Amino acid sequence: MRRRDFCGVLGSAALAGCGGLPGTGPDSNPDSRFGGEPCTDAFGEDATCYHEVANPNGDLVLVPDRERITDPSEPATFTLENGLNRTVRVSVTFPEVYRRFDGRWFRLPDRRQDQGGEAELSAGESLRFGLTNAAGPTPEDVDWGAGKAYGAGQFAYAVWSYEPDIRAVARFVVDGDPMTLAPPGDATTTRSGSEIEVRGERFRERDHSLTTTFTARPDAEETVAVPPEALRGQWELRCVAYLRQAGVSTVRVLTEDRGFFRTPLEWLDAAGAPASDDTVYEVGSTAFAVTERSV
Predict the structure, then answer these.
(1) For residue 63, how many other CB atoms are within 10 A of its CB?
(2) How far apart are CA 157 and CA 159, in angstroms?
(3) pLDDT score of 72
(4) pLDDT band at 17, cuts 50/70/90?
(5) Which residue spans of the chain are classified as CATH 2.60.40.10?
(6) What integer best gives the mean pLDDT of the chain?
(7) Spatial separation of the C-alpha atoms in residues 148 and 108, rounded to whole Å
(8) What is the assigned CATH class of domain 9-174?
């Protein structure tokens, strides 16, 4: 089995998230552990990375308190500094957090949002942001906080100013244990031979509208590696964990109408992975294909 380098075969219009932008060389921040490294293009061409800014005057910069977090249970905190000679309007709803994994940036799902809306930041002013793991408490010294679910790895956090259109980005590293994918706690399972059928505790047959099938593909020649963080926030995708049970090759998930919620393939696409019935994904040591059928 080999992992598929899909970044190398995509057209230039589809390369967002497939690496970084050129470094700024001597203009890089000498105090950053990422100095001299490229920024991430996961946020588009209007992103400004802290480690590429030698002088924050004239820029909107997101400064991390620490670029290395010693354990996933510890919060990450940042200060947004307005070095522009104008007021900016900042979105504080669902900040964008990406993880770099197997050469690509994947967006973490919006798990929990404590506060939201927008804020105005005058020239020379600053705002404090905090990121906590899962349901951890928001640090007391921040103005805006949000929660994600993540383990060890390399990450990028972005705050979006939509007036003017700028994304201020800070990269950071989390040490400690990696995340492992676990099945949803409210699932009811029925096993028949090598197949497991999964339903939610509140599933009603008359509302059944989507069947998602995960099929083990241990002999696939090409796979796309996906971090568990990208699957953690979607109920059906967490059921991939059942494929780790001995002798299980198929997991069939029955769900009701999800309304505006994304299907598993739509979720993978939004996270930054190619989404199709032909793609074989790999999470940890589990390789699998996804098919969806509306009923």
Answers:
(1) 19
(2) 7
(3) 92
(4) very low
(5) 9-174
(6) 83
(7) 7
(8) mainly beta
